[in-house]
Structure formats: C-alpha cells, structure tokens
Amino acid sequence: MANVAFIFVSFQSVVDDWIESYKHDRDIALLDLINFFIQCSGCKGVVTAEMFRHMQNSEIIRKMTEEFDEDSGDYPLTMAGPQWKKFKSSFCEFIGVLVRQCQYSIIYDEYMMDTVISLLTGLSDSQVRAFRHTSTLAAMKLMTALVNVALNLSINMDNTQRQYEAERNKIIGKRANDRLELLLQKRKELQENQDEIENMMNAIFKGVFVHRYRDAIAEIRAICIEEIGIWMKMYSDAFLNDSYLKYVGWTMHDKQGEVRLKCLTALQGLYYNKELNSKLELFTSRFKDRIVSMTLDKEYDVAVQAIKLLTLVLHSEEVLTAEDCENVYHLVYSAHRPVAVAAGEFLYKKLFSRRDPEDDGILKRRGRQSPNANLVKTLVFFFLESELHEHAAYLVDSMWDCATDLLKDWECMNSLLLEEPLNGEEPLTDRQESALIEIMLCTIRQAAECHPPVGRGTGKRVLTAKEKKTQLDDRTKITELFAVALPQLLAKYSVDAEKVTNLLQLPQYFDLEIYTTGRLEKHLDALLRQIRDIVEKHTDIDVLEACSKTYHALCNEEFTIFNRVDIARSQLIDELADKFNRLLEDFLQEGEEPDEDDAYQVLSTLKRITAFHNAHDLSRWDLFGCNYKLLKTGIENGDMPEQIVIHALQCTHYVILWQLAKITESSSTKEDLLRLKKQMRVFCQICQHYLTNVNTAVKEQAFTILCDVLMIFSHQIMTGGRDMLEPLVYTPDSSLQSELLSFILDHVFIDQDDDNNSADGQQDDEASKIEALHKRRNLLAAFCKLIVYTVVEMNTAADIFKQYMKYYNDYGDIIKETMSKTRQIDKIQCAKTLILSLQQLFNEMIQENGYNFDRSSPTFSGIKELARRFALTFGLDQLKTREAIAMLHKDGIEFAFKEPNPQGESHPPLNLAFLDILSEFSSKLLRQDKRTVYVYLEKFMTFQMSLRREDVWLPLMSYRNSLLAGGDDDTMSVISGISSRGSTVRNKKTKPATGKRKVPEESSSSDSMWLNREQTMHTPVMMQTPQLTSTIMREPKRLRPEESYMGVYPMQPEHHQAPLDYKYVDDRRGTSLMEDDEEPIVEDVMMSSEGRIEDLNEGMDFDTMDIDLPPSKNRRERTELKPDFFDPASIMDESLPFFPT
C-alpha cells in the first residue's frame, strides 16, 4: 500500500482492504499507513514494527530525517509530469475516502485517528520541506474530511431531535416509550461522536494550521488558506465567523501571489452565497480596502480575482463606496484583457444590470423605445466621463462578454442618432452623438473581426464553428441595417468631420453580396452620392482618407457591385485631375502673383488626389508631370506654400510606388524600367533640395520620403528572385548621406525646449511634448533603418552612437537596437564605428577645453561612462567578439599616439588621455589577447615614456595595468630587474583571480592576428609600473566562505558534516528539501506596510479558539459560539496584532 503507484488503483478497494487489515491487527495496518505517508514524502526510509512499538513519533521522525536524501531537489508533490500531477489529486482523494469509509466506527476508537494526527502534526513541524509539505497537505485534507463528517453528524442530530420531539408530543396512548428511549440513546451517541470529531479537528487546527498558514514555503501557506475556505463554505455554522476569517484577512497581505490568490478564491466561494453575507459584514468592513487595493496587484491573476470578488460583494447594498467603484471602473481600459474583462463585468453589474419595473412592459419594444436605450445612454455618459476618448475599442472589448446583447443592439443606437427624441426626453448633445458613433463603430468592428483591439491578446485565434456562424450572422445584420441607414447618417452629419470619419469606416465590415441579393442597389447609389458630396465639402485629411478607404472596400472585383462603384470612382478622379491641371496652369503662370484663394484651391484639390492615390492606382492620370512642375517651381522661386509642397511630395511618392508595384507584379518593358528609374532619381534630387528648406515641416516630409525611397530602391529590391529590377537600385552618394545625417543631428538630437520654440505657435504642454518626441523618434528610426540595411555607410552611425548617453531616455532603445543589428552584420566594422564615436567626442572636448583639460571633469567622465556602456553591449561571450575588440583596441591605441606633443618626447602625446577611455574595453579581451595588445602598445612607447610617473602619464599607466590584469607575468615584456619598491607595490595590489571561468587559450600566430608583427621583434626595456586600479576596474568584493549565507541561517551541529551548499540552506531560493534552522519556518512571511507582522501567536489565547460545532436547532444545553475576534475591544488591544500596520 505504501507504494506510490496506488494512484492507478481503485481507492475504494484499497481502503476496504486496509480496514480489514486494521480489524485483524491494527498495529500492522497503522504501520502500513505511516510508511505510506513517509514514502509519499519521497523518503526511502521505512518505519519498522520495532520502531513503531518502542519509539516516540519525534524519534521516528528524527530517524527518517537522517535517512532522507537531502540532495534530491524534488519530491512527489513538486515533481513534474502528468503522473505526478495525478499523484497529488489521488493522494488527497485517498485521504477523503479513508475517512469516509471509517466514519461510522474506526475513527472513534481513540487509536487510529490519534496516531495519524500525532504523526502528521510531528511531520508538519519537520525541518525537511518534503515532510512538512506532504504532511500539511494530508492534515488539511484530513481536516476537510472530518468537517464533512461533523456536518453529517449535525444533520443527523437535528433529524433525531426532530423525531424525538414529534414522538414526545403525541398523546400518551399513542406514544412509543421504546422509540423515545431509542432516539435518546441515538442522540447521545451522536453527541459523543461529535465531541470526538471536535477534539480531532481542534488537534489538527492548533497543531498544524496555526503554524503552517505562515510557513516559509508559499505552497504550504496556500494549502492552508485553500482548505480553511472550504471549511467555512462547507460548514458555515461552525467555521464562518471572525475567529477563522481573520486568517484569510491577514494572509491577503502575503508577499507571494499564489497565496493571495487562494485567499481571494476562498472568499469568492463565501460571497457567492448571498445567505452568508450577513456573517461577512464585519469582515467586509475591515478588509474591504485591502480587497480594493488588490485590483492593482502586480500579479494579474490576483487582480482579476480581486475584481471578481468585488463583483460578488456588489450583492450587498451600499458596501462599496463610489470611490471604491471608480477604482475598478478605470480598469476597463487596462491593456491586460482578463483584468479588463473582469472590470467590464463589474461595471455592467453595477450600472447596467438593474432594470426598472416599468421596463418589463416594454421589453418587446425596439429602437429608441427599447429598454436598451437608457443603457446605451448610460454607456455613452460613462465613456465621456472617463475622458479617454481614444479608447472606446478597449471599453467595448471589456464589456463584450457580459453585455453582448446591449452592445449588439445597433438598431437602438441607430434610432438614437436618427429619430427625434420622445416627449420629455432630452436629446443627445453633439459630444454625446460623437461618442455614440465611435462606440457603435467599435462594436461593429468587434463583431465583424472577432478579435480584441490592438494591444490586447496575443493575436488572432482560430474561430470555432459556432463563432464563425455568429460572425456571419452579425455581418449580415450589420449590412442589412446600415446599408439603408448609413446614407441617412452621412447626410445628417455631413459637415461634422469627426462623425463622418467614423461613419465612413462602416462599409469595411459589410457583406457586399447583400447589396445584390437584398436588392439594395438604390441605397448603394445613395451612399456613393453622399461620399462624393463629402469629398467636395471636406479638406480634412482624415475624412478624405476615410472616403478613399471606403471606395477601396466597395471596389471589390469579386462582387457584382464593382462596376457601379468603379464608374463612380473614375468620374470623381477625372473631375479632380482635370480641376487640378486647370488650377495648376493658372497658379504657375509667369509674371503673376498667385493669391491666397488660388493657393487654397490648388491645395484642397491636391489633398483630395493625394488621399485617393494612397489606396488607388491613379497611374493613368499621369500625375508625376504636374507635381514635378509644382515642386520644381517651388525650388526655383522659394515662395511655394509649405502645405502644397508637403502634399506634392507625398503624391509624387505614391506615383513612384504604384509604378514600382505594376512593374513588380507584371511583365514590364525596358522603357518602363528606365522611365521609373529616371523619375525616381529626379524625385530624390528634389527631396534632397527640400532638405535645406527653411520650413521644418517641409524638411521633415522630404527626409521621411527620402529614407523610404532609399530603403525601397536599395539592393534589397532584388531579393526574392527579382533580378530584373537591378537597374532600379539606387545608392546614395556621400553628399546625400551627409545631408541626411546633418538633418538628424539638427532636428532629432535637440533639447525639448528648442523643439517647442521652433514649432509654429505650438503650446508648451505635455501632450505636445510627447507628440514631438514621437515624431523625432520616427525620424531617427527611419535613418537607423538605412544604417542597419547598409544603405548608408556604417561609419555614419558614429554620430548616432555618441548620443547614446545624452539622449538615453528618449532614444536609448533605438540606438541600442541599431548597435545590435550592425554588430550582426559586421562585428569589426561596428567596433570601429564605436571607437570612432568616442574619438569624435574626445576631439569635441579638446576643441572646447583644450589639451590641458581636467580628467575629472563631467565631460571626460561622461565619455568614459559611454565607453563602459559600449563595452557592456559586447556581452559575455568573448570568443565571439574577439577580433572586434582587438580591432577596437588597435584603433584606440593608434588614435592616442597619433598626435605627438610639439614640446618633445618628454611630454605626453596630445591624445594620450584617450587611453583612459580605452581601458574600459580591456575586460573584454581574452587573456592571450591582452598580451598581444600590450605588445602592440609597446611599439608606440619609447623608453622615456616607460619611466614617467607624473599625473599626465597616468592614462598610459592605467591602460597598461588593465592589460596586465589577469595575464601571466612571465610572458609580459618587462625587465626582470624591477626595483624592490615597485615589486612590493605590485605584489600587494595584484592577486590571482579565483573562481573565474577559464577560457581555453588559443595560439595567436603572427600570420593570423591583426597586428601583423614579426615574431622576432624585441620589445624595449621598460620599468614595471605599479598597478593603479580605478574603482570601476576593481573586481567586486567576494564573500569569504565563512561570510556567506551561513550568517543568515546558522547550521545546526548535527547537520554540519557536509560542505555548505547554497541551495541546500535556503529553500526559498532553490528546490532543496531541508532547512537548517527552525527560524525561517516559524517566521511570519506575510506582507504589510512595515514589512512583517509580529508573531500572531503572541498574546493570543488559543484555548478560546477551540473548534466548537454550533448547537443543533433544539440543543439548548450547548454553549454559544466563541467570542468575536473582530470585536473593537480586541482590535484595540496592542497585544493582538490582528491587522497589518
């Protein structure tokens, strides 16, 4: 039976066999059960009959502890695999079956249960985690089974008492005295059994629960809280009182999420039963604020369950204040969907689920008179009050699961927008109508696409057959309703740009086939007329692009309505193109000064054409020529309005992209390729001219388009077997690269205040700052993309990399990713670029401060810190970056000695201080490469340099020492006759590195290394300098063995034979089974504002907490329930720290 493989055997038969064995010889049967618990803990030891008869439980447990394999990291309850997951549930089920089968006889023999409870109590206090974990689980499941037995006894006692009263109330002639005596005897037996059960439960509760619910191991604490929740729910009359609820309340401050989660799920089971709410009132008032705060828990699972618990608390009227509810309301906009959905359900239950009695008579009404009308208005009011108008999609998604009928009542929403208000009804304001249209669009999108908005969820999932059918039904319903209503809505709101923009997105979700099958062609014509009118009325870019996308959605060749829509689109474009050519001819006439009205007409027409060219191929209207004339005139005259230039550049960009798409998708002639090549290069020259425009917006547009064109027409264009496009490949010359880089330096790497001052009347507020930063980040990303894809030279990145520290908060992620990508392309060239950026900063510092600068100045320290950051980006694998790091040192050394001092060799080279910066990379060299770099350094040094000890020579000494650190002294090119003083200093300061991972040495032959030096080259004779190690270069202090974790958890003498293993000592850090000190087990590990709560046992009289089952309805002789431990008098007692401070 002790074999763990019992999980595959029928529990009923196993327990029955054990009961028979117990009846035959209870000692042997109990020995079998004891060994079962021992072996389920993963212990290989066996309790013999001799030990069972002559040893106390504590002695048996000590013996088993000695035989336990403490090096084993796992035990059955924590082992992975399906069979071990099954083991835990089977283990728990076995205990329940055992008690259930023994509940009528064996458990009352005062031997079997006493032995088991005593063993489990002893094991639960063991230092071996496996013993403690397994025995706690067994004891808690045993308690749960006993609670069930106690509940059945209580029911039987009530039934017996009722039968007794009924029999006694009969008249004397019909009363059966024998039956009365039998019932009295039965009630007495039940009472005795219940007293026995109470004693057993008290032993488990006080011996196991009150100690283990604050165990050092989170899993053990979670087991205790989960089970006490079951007891309170199963037998609420006995356990649902403040004496037990307080444990759950305290543990809600636990530092581990899984324990807090068990608290919330336990409370959910209680609050779900409305009949128990009266018993929870005091607990709710005490711990409500903690539950509300847990909605913002760092663990999302805990936050979700906290919101669900508060949703159940709503059943109790006026428990949650308006402020409490508002704390949950805003979570509907959370990016984490489970949290948002839980908050959406809370919001729906609070604001939308209550129906007025008058609504019952209008349930069948539809449209504006439907009961959903007021709910839709409430949703609009809530959305507007939340002041998050760009997040309607998040609000809809949060409520989608719980309020589907409301959110899909598009007929009601449409009626609220189109129909006149009823008598006495307040009409919607303009702001409310805009919000309703936005919400309606979001509900339609959610129904048609069947996936959450961007930012929620991991992506599109595969829909089930039922979901696909619902999706098709919803699209049909949407199309049938709005195919008719959309033209009316557009006509009503045609002058409102915001409303029209949202309404024009609806056709994207139509089932276009219904226009034909439903004979709705006249409504399609009405829609096309409305779109045409809107194009003529509006010049807003968002509105025009929405019109363009609507035409694109309707112009689907798969449907029969294509020809009708295509004709309407072509007529519109014809008129716009003709009007543009006519206006442009008048606008560009020589000798005439164009007035503002002409400029406005040209701009508005150009906006419309550009918006349509974005989604439609307008190649047959030949728009390149007229845009080219417009842009060329702007360059020549310099007085072209900025908006006209911006949209002309954008439109020309679209022309080139559509031509490239046609050439790529179909066979094209050589003439087509040459024409596109010519147009593209001419366009790039125009954009390059506009990079020097006085207007910032024009320069930004030209830069963005240039980056896109250079990216598209780079060598990447030939990938995928498109070699025929080779003539189109365009590589920017050095002047263009230089101008692009200058634009980045002038418009991206600037102070926030400078950017605000350059903006045209832009207000200096947070929103404008964020928008400006976002725009600058996009500009930088566009240029960095050119570097990453080798469109521009990699060394241009030096000017970008050197800004890494100064603009880390704004662009650090972009620059770091660029470093990573360039290193993947060419490690050596990337390293040369990094050192070049440091050299540029060094030269800038020299120009500003001169050569006699202070090496402790913030500027120089900033360059050193940047070098340190660069070094960190090389990672830990020195073999992969070996050549790159070596080349970096080579370039750095050459730069340091590049400029000799005009005053002679007795003075240091002008750039010698750069070696101080270069030393930040020395730690990335392999040991043998340090020797090689050291030899290369000696080539630039003279004998006089090696003798210098003045402060100006400290960079050289520091760099040399950084190369000597970790190297073999006998291989260094140093003289043997070092002075005794120098030798003593070096011996004191250099210690052999210990505990480091050794990299295998590789031979560095002369023909394979970057130095290309002669093997026979002799090094100059130099004096050894003392090692001057900076704080940055010094290795972190290592703990001596006696200073390690032993000071935190002192080992007991009996466990001190084995050498200390870190994971063996602190089981909260690893998976070890032993704790070598009792203190971590009994210490309180729950969270509080001060870190820990005082020991909860201190000052607490557990005698008053005996489990006392409630009296039956007719048992007047029983005492009442124990006193309320949430009594204000108890709370004020400082010796009872019930609540965390």
Description:
The chain is flat, with a radius of gyration of 41 Å. The protein is an all-alpha fold and 1141 residues long. Helix 14 runs parallel beside helix 16 and helix 30 packs antiparallel against helix 31 (670-690). GO terms for molecular function: chromatin binding. Part of the cohesin complex which is composed of a heterodimer between a SMC1 protein (SMC1A or SMC1B) and SMC3, which are attached via their hinge domain, and RAD21 which link them at their heads, and one STAG protein.
Strand content: under 5%
Tally of DSSP β-strands? 0
Specify the helix fraction band.
Answer: 55-70%
Find the structural class using helix and strand composition.
mainly alpha
What value does the Rg take, in angstroms? 41 Å
The averaged pLDDT comes out at 81
Number of helices: 48
The global form is flat
Low-confidence stretches: 1-8, 758-763, 968-1104, 1112-1141
Through-space gap between termini: 49 Å
Main sheet characteristics: none
